[in-house]
Amino acid sequence: MEQSFLDYYSLEPLTRWIHDALCGVMSEDWAVFLESLVIGVAILLAYAVLAVVLIYMERRVCGAFQCRIGPNRVGGKGGLLQVPADVLKILTKEIIRLKNSDHVLYELAPYLVILASVLSFSCLPWNKGMAVIDLEVGVFFVLAASSIGILGILLAGWSSNSKYTAIGAVRSGAMLVSYELSLGICVLTVVILSGTMSISGIVESQADGWNIFKGHIVTLIAFVVYLISGNAEANRGPFDLAEAEQELTAGYHTEYSGMHFGFFYLAEYLNLFITSGIATTLFLGGWMPLHVAGLDGFNAVMDYIPGIVWFLGKTFFVVFLLMWIRWTYPRLRIDQVLNLEWKYLMPLSLLLMLVMAVLKTCGLVF
Amino acid sequence: MMTTEEKIKEWCPQAETETAGETVVRVPADKLEDVCRRLHDDADEPMDYMRDLVGVDQGDGRYSVYYQLESTRTHGRVMLCSDAATGEEGPLLPSVCQVWKTAEIKEREAYDFFGIRFTGHPDMRRLFLREDWKGYPLRKDYDMDSNPLNMENEVNADVTEEFRLLPDGTLERRENVVFNPDDFVVNIGPQHPSTHGALRMRTSLEGETVKHIDPVLGYIHRGIEKLSESLTYPQTLAFTDRLDYLSAHQNRHALCMCIERAAGIEVTDRVQYIRTIMDELQRIASHLLFYSCLVMDMGALTPFFYGFREREMILDIFEETTGGRLIQNYNMIGGVQADIHPTFVQKVKEFTKHMREIIHEYHDIFTGSVIARNRLKQMGLLSREDAISLGATGGTGRASGWANDVRKHHPYGLYDKVDFKEIVYTHGDSWDRYMVRMDEILESCAIIDQLIDNIPAGDFRVKVKPILKLPEGVFTASVESSRGEFGVFLVSRGDKSPYRLHFRSTGLPLVHAMDTVCRGNKIADLIAIGGTLDFVIPDIDR
Fold first, then answer.
1. B353 lies in which domain range?
2. In whole angstroms, what is the distance from residue A87 CA to residue A266 CA?
């Protein structure tokens, strides 16, 4: 297949040029330092902006599902300023410190959650040449980094010294650790198919077709399993047992206020985005455009759409799918959640991995 | 066959029958337990359902308790009365909680308000008032200033008292344990998203599994029964809407009916039609809210809005005719407040048509969902015997196979003229409790459709004196409210205000049933079961 379009996307010449220009005026160490600083700030900025976008999207989408309008007053038509106004409000709120809590852990917990979220966020392949962290074991790194969040949730629930938060934390501990398994195995299925663990490598291996199409039915099922366990990992309905508003008021973050609570809230939405982003990377070709074999004119037009648009478009599509699920189903109970994982999803994903390995060795994949 | 009164006379020759208003069989305290047990175990007409237990201060130092009983087989009713033995220990009566479980909570209420101690009752704590409350407020000689506003936190004891009457007439006090010191007790409520109001349940858990639930009530107790004793009859009507606000029409219907019966007022046919239609509209509105609350308790937020969407249409209909949406103040003694709005008939017809067409959406999104089925089926089982013994009326009882619809078995209004099915399921699980209500929505639509085209012309209200004096005696009335049998118990001394007015709460037995139903289930099921039992707190606390 013709792959010249890959160069059209690449931002590498641009970054190379900036790097060379900076090296011209300062030593290379300084240049790298400056670039890291700029990229760090850019990531945090993108993180915050995306959170606002996602919260707005959630409100509109859920409004549409629930026969109502959603935010429509603040900031003129469409209520565009509603979320920024809420952000301002939450920034001005007092952070309440509990008398009988474990102060160090209590205050550390939200930072752990947000740290895990930002770390995995940095791994997303936005475009060719635009991956911030692109390790040889990139997928592995994402799984490891996102697991730190569980620690934050457990600590939050434990250190608050409240019965509701403790139940919430124990629930989420049991659930997240379980779902990590089928999630990881689904990722491995794709790794077998692509033959690499590097995130950019996985994306580039899909230049001749997205993984969801390449792996016969196996990757399609793996995609669904990934979405289910990813949804559980993101702590969203119908798997929001850790918060379970109707049972535990707010679960593990019941005792948090102000921006401490805001961090949990922010991380929840970004985890949704990250889950969808990884799903896009692994199954939907990342920033690759949609190509249909035989339709050269159509493919050429698709090639003109920049990679970042493809990536965001696909990711938001998956986000929408997950929101659809959240606003449709009632919540599961803890034993049902664990049954689903240990009795169905994990054996199924193991089987998928096995089948994929056989297919790959026999050269039966596209 | 002997009548129940004759049987009681045979078992206890000292029993006397009084017929001022309702027939009351007066049984001496020492024979009470025996008579109750025999009535309960009677072969022909077992009085296995205790409708209510009401304490009354007779004013001359006597404290009486009225037991309203009903047979679930023949639906025959009987009312017993027993004077508490008074001595230095205060008023004492034998407990009947071994015969009917619902007496456990109702005797606590009588103890709380009248200080009547029930010997043999395992849990003689106050029910609504604080544990450190002084005096018994529904006694006639209660000093209104004896309990100034208390800003101290109430500490709930983990132990309770039981009294036993020894053969020599002295009282033995025993301590019973509610919660062990090493129990993991979670406090659900009074401020909690899923208790549907200010209800508090102290729940001990074993991991996620519920071991024991101890409801702590009274957070919105307003003393409606005490207040009513100083108001004229028309004034007391205002309170009924504020009991179970989702059964506002039905509650008020019951009180109006009771007063009309006592005063011998005959209402016109038009009024009967309007009242019946309003009752059914109210029932649909309440069941829609039940659906909304249940799905929200289970974490499904979208179907929640479906229920509110249709309920809004009913509230609009109410608003046009009554002027109110939640609190309607519509039924009056001798009729209704105002005639129906000119568009009422047309809008109600449109609504029932719309409801039938749209109810499939409710089933599509929730009833058909595999998660909902797994969460509700075989969960929170309540057997028929338990439902009857606990007095869990309404949809909860009917889901357990107990046909208890007052509309069917003791018709009032126009229910003997319309054709409708009594929805009865058999499993007694959360799923059946849910399905009963969903089916009743359609059944209520059918009742309305039979009536709406035939509302006869006539007065919407007969003239009634503003100051009404009822003859002396005991009067009762009961209706099928949205969530069970709502009863009014009225003692009149010929005055312009009631001597004692008591409402049978539909929710109190349901809250009492929580412990039986939830034990052994997960904490998430506790919330879902609470949703399917469908109680409203202001009605429990009164």
1. 224-541
2. 10
Using 70 as the pLDDT threshold, list the residues of chain A that sit under it: 1-9, 242, 244-245, 365-366
Question: Which residues of chain B does A335 touch, with a Cβ-Cβ cutoff of 8 Å?
Answer: 208, 522
On whether any CB of chain A is under 8 Å from the CB of B297, the answer is yes
Instruction: Show which of residues 332-361 on chain A sit within 8 Å of chain B, judged by CB atoms.
Output: 332-336
Q: Of A65, A66, A329, which has the smallest distance from its Cβ to B371's Cβ?
A: A329
Domain coordinates of chain A in residue numbers? 96-361
User: What's the rounded Cα separation, in Å, for the pair B213 and B203?
Assistant: 4
Q: Are B165 and B257 part of one and the same domain?
A: no
| Smallest CA–CA distance from B523 into chain A, residue | A247
Same domain, yes or no: B329 and B475:
yes
pLDDT at residue A101 in the model:
77
B155 falls within a domain: no
Q: Give B437-454 pLDDT, tens digit per residue.
A: 999 999 999 999 888 888
Which of B205, B301, B366, B369 should one mutate to test binding to chain A, selecting the residue with the greatest count of A CBs within 10 A? B301
CA distance B174 to B196: 35
In Å, how far is A217's CA from the nearest CA of chain B?
24
Which of B184, B302, B313 to probe by mutation at the A interface, max A CB count within 10 Å? B302
From A291-305, B130-144, B233-247, the region with the lowest mean pLDDT: A291-305
Q: Does A240 touch chain B (CB under 8 A)?
A: yes
Estimate to the nearest angstrom the gap between the alpha carbon of B232 and the chain centroid.
23
Angle between helices A307-326 and A216-233 (to 10 degrees): 70
- The whole model's pTM is what? 0.86
Contact B524 A167 (CB under 8 A): no
Q: Is residue B147 part of a domain?
A: no
Q: Which amino acid is at B123?
A: D
From the list A113, A105, A104, the residue with the least C-alpha distance to A47 is: A113
Q: Are residues B323 and B464 in the same domain?
A: yes
Look at residues B131, B128, B239, B187 and name the one whose alpha carbon lies nearest to residue B508: B128
Token digits of residue A348: 């199924």
Same structural domain, B130 and B229: no
Summarize pLDDT for B215-230 with one digit per residue, the tens: 888 888 888 888 888 8
Do the interacting molecules here have an ipTM over 0.90? no
Which chain B residues are Cβ-neighbours of A67 within 8 angstroms? 305-306, 309
B286 within a domain of the structure (yes/no): yes
Of B150, B176, B202, at which residue does a domain stop? B176
pLDDT at residue A8, as a whole number: 61
Residues B171 and B228 in one domain: no
Q: pLDDT of A143-191, one tens digit each?
A: 888 888 888 888 888 888 888 888 888 888 888 888 888 888 988 888 8
Q: Which CATH number goes with the domain that contains B382?
A: 1.10.645.10
Residue B127 sits in the same domain as residue B237: no
Number of domains present in the structure of chain B:
2
Q: Is residue B301 part of a domain?
A: yes
Q: How many CB atoms lie within 10 A of CB A68?
A: 12
Q: Please report which helix (H) or strand (E) contains residue B284, including its range.
A: helix B269-297
